[in-house]
Design goal:
- This protein has 290 residues and is mainly alpha-helical.
- It has two domains: 81 residues, DNA polymerase, domain 1 (Orthogonal Bundle), CATH 1.10.150; 176 residues, Orthogonal Bundle (hpI Integrase, Chain A).
- The protein contains 13 helices and three strands.
- The protein has a three-stranded antiparallel beta sheet, with no helix packed on it.
């Protein structure tokens, strides 16, 4: 039945257009289950799944890890049922508990300004770093999308970014500060950092090659320290801040989700929850009879 797992993996990548890392995570969960249960997948029943769930808990796995494994199995057996590999889905009677998700941490607008103003745009590296941070916050794209951008994905004259993705490219508006920073980078920094004129990457490292995820991670950490912000800033925190700040200033969830490439309302509703919590926090601290 390894062939079925491989077909399921291909389905995740080519039909559902999941990220490679997500599809690999699904496959890994399923292979661990198969190794534990030691029986053909077509013969799996509800008790097998429940026993595995208990086993993971006894091994000290977190509730979120147990949940992720159950979700992976649910996706697999739904696929197998749909494509005729099994007649009865063993997950139908399995209750998958909900895990309360922690609300993502965001930067305040003042902290965002401090971070974005931390790079000193006096040399090529500083100009590049400023452009990367401004573009990340201006668009809410993922760091993987940021480093995958090519020069052709940016249209500064029309003030827009064309962000490629598994479900198709999406067009995201660019603010004036992002346009200004990226324009300065393209005019006065990128060319001096290149070793070859054939490089298509928008953002390059000091060796003239495409910026890596690890490279950008080091950049954002260095400016966190320089700006004196105590929060553990990650590239994803800027993505969350982009959404929360837009919502705070009147943007609707549907438009925010479209710009971020999110397909379900649950993914964007979390930002509304962040603002609701902030409102209650402000009320409790400021109201004299709270």
């Amino acid at each position: 039945m390894d062939a079925v797992i491989n077909k399921f993996y291909d389905y995740m990548i080519n039909t559902r257009h999941l990220a490679d890392s997500t599809a690999v995570s699904y496959k890994s969960d399923i292979l661990h289950f198969k190794e534990y249960i030691k029986k053909p997948l077509r013969r799996i029943n509800e008790k097998d799944v429940s026993d595995y769930s208990d086993y993971l808990s006894k091994c000290g796995k977190s509730s979120s890890t147990v949940l992720r494994n159950l979700v992976s199995l649910r996706s697999l057996f739904s696929f197998m049922e749909k494509h005729g590999f099994i007649k009865q889905n063993p997950m139908e009677a399995v209750s998958i508990p909900k895990v309360d998700k922690k609300l993502p941490q965001i930067l305040t607008t003042e902290e965002t300004d401090r971070l974005l103003n931390a790079p000193a745009a006096k040399d090529a590296k500083g100009i590049r770093d400023k452009a990367m941070l401004e573009l990340l916050y201006a668009t809410g794209i993922k760091v993987s999308e940021l480093i995958a951008l090519n020069v052709s994905n940016v249209n500064l004259r029309r003030r827009m970014l064309i962000c490629p993705g598994g479900r198709g490219a999406r067009v995201i508006p660019l603010g004036k500060q992002a346009v200004s920073s990226v324009s300065l980078y393209l005019k006065s920094a990128r060319t001096s950092m290149l070793l070859s004129g054939e490089e298509s990457a928008l953002f390059v490292n000091c060796s003239g090659k495409r910026m890596s995820r690890q490279g950008f991670w080091k950049i954002i950490k260095s400016y966190q320290a320089l700006s004196g912000i105590e929060k553990d800033i990650t590239p994803h925190m800027l993505r969350h801040s982009f959404a929360a700040h837009l919502l705070q200033n009147g943007a609707d969830l549907e438009s925010i989700g479209e710009m971020m490439g999110l397909t379900d309302t649950a993914s964007t509703a979390v930002y509304k929850k962040i603002l609701e919590n902030k409102i209650f926090d402000v009320y409790n601290k400021a109201h004299p009879r709270a």
